[in-house]
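Try this one yourself first.
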């Protein structure tokens, strides 16, 4: 009887797939630009953490817009934004509205909050049944609120209609255990058209904390598949010595294109990488070229690159370390999940510096091997200095704040509705640490002016 009861609950929460197949009308690269990176480039990787992360990311970006360069503001150097979970709201908003719309973000996105649209009580028996069946909140509770009040039916075509930066909203493919970025190549693997996909669906997927939200569902369309670009061959058919992460991607792509796989279930991007660097790392180690993931043109025009990891992680909390009893079952489950996420994120962050050093070294070797005529054809600068390339990494984090402010921001909960005071404190703290960060000051000092 119990099995029948639970089985009857299993269909309570269903997020229906809305992605459409590729067609003859699908534009090359789904309409997305291919060259985002110019002479000076900043890659932003934005962490998760609910509205706290969205506000912290906004504070960083607004601080960058206050820092002047010889060509404009530092924010205009941002070429790529990788985001997971709560920060995907910030990334998507910026992708749709650019610098001119950034100032509206607090009033239009942060301050209204979202918990008023959500199912919050586990004392409600129906919510418990929904929890058992896959997630308390479905698209009708959160995704639709995002679409109705923030994104207003915008699709990725609307993002691609603007002149950069590249927006890479990241979720997690639960079945294959890999990061799933909402980028053209990932949807090419699904044989689906990303340009027609709602931005609200991508943000909801990136924020779909298991059990709190039911997974976002996308459908594979193997009947609409077309050959993938040869540049992806090292990722699709990697050599045996390729990293395990690349082999995992290869298996997933094969599954996506198999008639036996019909649906992919997507959850919070922080489950595989709460710092949003996985897509960059996988492309760098998987494409097996000296300049990837840059294009050839970007490889000869770039001279300065700074990867900025924005970490809005919450400080440890809970009182069960002060007594012999505890944690409770729920606390244990949350602590175990957070430990796995934090450990993987720290390892990724620790290794990123070595990856950038290797990328810089192999890129310089590639540039110095090019004939001058090819450099000119690719738009390289004159005079040409093949070794004039410098990559760096910076981390903007809550733990970099002065102790009283660090404790204050670190204590702000990971929720989808926050008080105006909490939001203002988070934004101002992120802005201040951005303005004062030595690595950013060094980048501004060393970046190459447009006239050079």
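Now uncover the answer:
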């Amino acid at each position: 009887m119990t099995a029948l009861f639970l089985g009857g609950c299993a269909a309570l929460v269903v997020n229906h797939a809305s992605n459409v197949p590729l067609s003859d009308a699908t534009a090359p690269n789904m309409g997305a630009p291919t060259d985002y990176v110019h002479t000076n480039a900043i890659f932003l990787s934005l962490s998760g953490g609910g509205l706290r992360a969205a506000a912290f990311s906004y504070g960083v970006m607004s601080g960058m817009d206050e820092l002047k360069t010889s060509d404009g503001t530092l924010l205009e150097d941002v070429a790529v934004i990788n985001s997971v979970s709560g920060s995907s709201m910030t990334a998507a908003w910026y992708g749709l509205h650019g610098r001119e719309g950034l100032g509206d973000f607090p009033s239009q996105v942060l301050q209204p909050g979202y918990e008023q649209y959500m199912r919050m009580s586990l004392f409600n028996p129906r919510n418990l049944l929904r929890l058992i069946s896959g997630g308390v909140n479905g698209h009708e509770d959160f995704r639709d609120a995002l679409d109705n009040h923030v994104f207003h039916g915008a699709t990725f075509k609307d993002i691609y209609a603007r002149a950069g930066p590249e927006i890479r909203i990241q979720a997690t493919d639960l079945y294959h255990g890999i990061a799933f970025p909402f980028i053209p190549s990932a949807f090419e693997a699904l044989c689906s058209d990303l340009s027609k996909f709602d931005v609200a669906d991508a943000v909801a997927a990136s924020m779909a904390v298991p059990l709190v939200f039911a997974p976002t569902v996308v459908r594979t369309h193997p009947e609409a598949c077309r050959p993938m670009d040869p540049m992806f061959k090292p990722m699709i058919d990697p050599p045996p010595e390729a990293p395990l992460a690349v082999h995992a991607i290869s298996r997933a792509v094969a599954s996506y294109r198999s008639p036996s796989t019909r649906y992919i279930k997507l959850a919070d991007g922080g489950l595989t990488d709460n710092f949003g660097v996985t897509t960059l790392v996988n492309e760098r180690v998987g494409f097996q070229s000296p300049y990837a993931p840059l294009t050839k043109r970007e490889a000869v025009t770039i001279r300065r690159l700074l990867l900025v990891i924005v970490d809005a992680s919450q400080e440890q909390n809970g009182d069960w370390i002060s007594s012999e009893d505890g944690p409770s079952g729920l606390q244990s489950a949350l602590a175990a999940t957070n430990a796995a996420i934090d450990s993987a994120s720290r390892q990724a962050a620790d290794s990123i510096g070595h990856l950038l050093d290797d990328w810089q070294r192999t890129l310089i070797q590639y540039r110095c091997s090019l004939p001058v005529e090819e450099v000119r054809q690719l738009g390289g600068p004159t005079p040409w200095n093949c070794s004039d390339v410098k990559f760096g990494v910076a981390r903007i984090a809550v733990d970099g704040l002065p102790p009283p402010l660090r404790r204050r921001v670190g204590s702000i909960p990971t929720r989808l509705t926050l008080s105006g005071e909490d939001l203002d404190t988070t934004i101002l703290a992120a802005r201040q640490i951005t303005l004062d960060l030595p690595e950013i000051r060094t980048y501004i000092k060393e970046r190459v002016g447009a006239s050079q």
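Discussion: The mean pLDDT is 90. The two ends are 76 Å apart (CA to CA).
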